[in-house]
Amino acid sequence: MVPGGFGIMGIEGKIKAAEYARENKIPYLGVCLGLQVATIEFCRNVLGMEGANSTEFDEEPAHAAVVFMPEISKTHMGGTMRLGTKPTPFLVDDCKIRRLYGGEGHVDERHRHRYEVNPELIGDIEEAGLVYVGKDETGERCEIMELDGHPYYVGTQYHPEFKSRPDRPSPPFLGLLMAASGMEI
Description:
Distance between the termini: 18 Å
CATH architecture: 3-Layer(aba) Sandwich
Strand order of the largest sheet: 1-9-8-7
Radius of gyration: 15 Å
Helix content: 25-40%
CATH class: Alpha Beta
Structural class: alpha/beta
Shape: globular
CATH superfamily: Class I glutamine amidotransferase (GATase) domain
Largest sheet: 4 strands, mixed
Low-confidence stretches: none
């Protein structure tokens, strides 16, 4: 599991963790930054985009896989994140994460981020097998990803831990535990 976070510290190790999980079919859950890290790794190692990175860590990467959200201020840091509960419609009829959410048409989860997957790369990324199965209500902002043909390689831009409870565990975390236990999702 690669959790949310800010800043460059440990990023290359997180990218290696995502690569190792992807290549070895080990269950992976990326939350917020973890989804972004998985996207960067996929761009570098599957799409061959040498130097792919987030503009959070490199202002002018060779390939901007993750970019600053256009509506967010770069000069005023207080209250400038995409915050709060937002709806995420599922774009596919059947996928692991949708099954974990009980087949619902959308999820309402809480957000806390300033960066997102570069919309200009989504087509190439999805064509290669990393599919954004849930996007925001505009259909442009990537919210949930899954890797085709992997037991459980899932990422969420939102923070499912914010709504998780002891008697009602968050579906993405439950899926990670199920996959790690060898259960079919």
